[in-house]
Amino acid sequence: MIGKYKGFVTLFGQNVKHELLSFHCIVHQEALCVQTFPVKINQVISLVVKITNKIIASALNHGQFRALLDEVNARYKDLLMFSNVRWLSRGAVLKSFTDCFEPIKDYLTNKDINYPEFYDDMWLQKLYFSVDLTSFLNHLNKKLQVKGNTAHTLLETVLSFFQQLQLFSEDIDSGNPDHFESLKEYTESSGYVIDLKIFKNINSR
Predict the structure, then answer these.
(1) Backbone φ and ψ of 75, nearest 5°
(2) Using alpha carbons only, how large is the chain's radius of gyration in Å?
(3) What is the pLDDT of residues 131-188, one digit of tens each?
């Protein structure tokens, strides 16, 4: 579409009397944007992916863990393996991990595998914040990939998301957790006090 010499935009531009506005795939730009996540958030996500893939990669471990999920009547019957190829898988992995968090902790403890992060409230708040953050991006990604979308519709979708980000930023400043459902649910169930302002300068923490 936008090849320098034989792309449609180049060839079309040679036959019109005005300048054309061209841009790279909007969905691709959004996928690149999420790679700029704060380091502390990426560290949380990396550990979740490592633990998840460790359980699933071994047939024995995987079978034992699924049996445990059945035994405790967990909402999810399995974990999802992360794939770098698809951004959407990152959010799905995080969501399934938090929904199975207690069985995961019990399973690893029974195998004498301990992660101190599982008992660190700050790390857990970052985990649930990551679930909400990737949920927002997954929702945007799905809207961008609707069949039949025009460039105008895609642009409107992205601009609307920018406005949402402004709202989320204001929520963080004011300490309003209403749009961060997973984080809010975690803090309410655990009894810890939520402080959204810690996410304002998360790269320094």
Answers:
(1) -60, -45
(2) 21
(3) 998 888 888 888 887 888 887 888 898 889 889 989 998 988 888 888 999 999 998 8
